[in-house]
Amino acid sequence: MELTFAITGASGAIYAWRTLQLLASSGVVERINLIMSSTAATVAQVEMGVNLKDPALHQINDWLGLEPESRLIRLWRLDNFAAKPSSGSYKQAGMLIVPCSMGTLGAIASGAGTNLIHRAADVTLKEGRKLVLVPRETPYNAIHLENMLKLSRAGARILPASPGFYHRPNNIEDLVDHLCYRILDQFDIPHSRKTQWTGEEVAEE
Ligand SMILES: Cc1cc2nc3c(=O)[nH]c(=O)nc-3n(C[C@H](O)[C@H](O)[C@H](O)COP(=O)(O)O)c2cc1C
């Protein structure tokens, strides 16, 4: 499976980091076309203390704990409209934006994108492929909500970065992982953890 994965400047760099690690270890993802906005690097610096400004592939691999020579990830520049994910004729399973800022969400909803992340998302929708957006903001204003509704109607899957508590997380890692597993579920990508509610948890007498 080949996917495009974008990281934007919303809070939650850890979701991108962990989802990429899980995709890498899933055994079914052969190539990830990675695009990062410039603010994504700022947020990663603030939240994870990592320098990803104009990163080289080996820096991304190092951040994710992959082998330095791993070719799983292909890094594309944000201004490269000739990149593979820019064209619908380049076939892949779909695209994820984790986390997705309100700025990127609005640009995609307007159809007037200005960078490769916007273009790749637009192409994913027009080709009828799966587009999973993980927005993060609080509170949402009416513009954010309207943009999400518009994108949902256009076929995008809106999966907010709102972790659940019903699996009884013990720490931040548990909280983050559960959301990342739900992201993987959107593409039926196998993972080790149970995310399906069975009803047995509150079994009736
Ligand atoms: C530390 C930090 C946290 C931010 N958190 C959010 C957020 O949670 N949601 C959001 O929509 N924007 C957030 N922003 C603002 C976006 O980064 C900003 O709107 C930016 O223009 C988004 O651009 P991009 O979508 O190209 O990454 C944050 C910015 C910084 C520096």
Describe what you observe in this structure.
- There is one protein chain.
- With 205 residues, the chain is an alpha/beta fold.
- It has one domain (2-193): Rossmann fold, CATH 3.40.50.
- The chain has 7 helices and 6 strands.
- The model has no long low-confidence stretch (mean pLDDT 95).
- Bound molecules: flavin mononucleotide (FMN).
- Residues 8-11, 37, 39-40, 42-43, 46, 101-104, 136-137 line the site of flavin mononucleotide.
Short description:
The protein is of the alpha/beta class and 205 residues long. It contains seven helices and six strands; from the N terminus they run βαβααββααβαβα.
Physical arrangement of strands within the biggest beta sheet? 3-2-1-4-5-6
- Strand and helix order: EHEHHEEHHEHEH
What number is the mean pLDDT? Answer: 95
Low-confidence residue ranges: none
- Give the CATH architecture: 3-Layer(aba) Sandwich
The global form is globular
Task: Output the number of helix runs.
Answer: 7
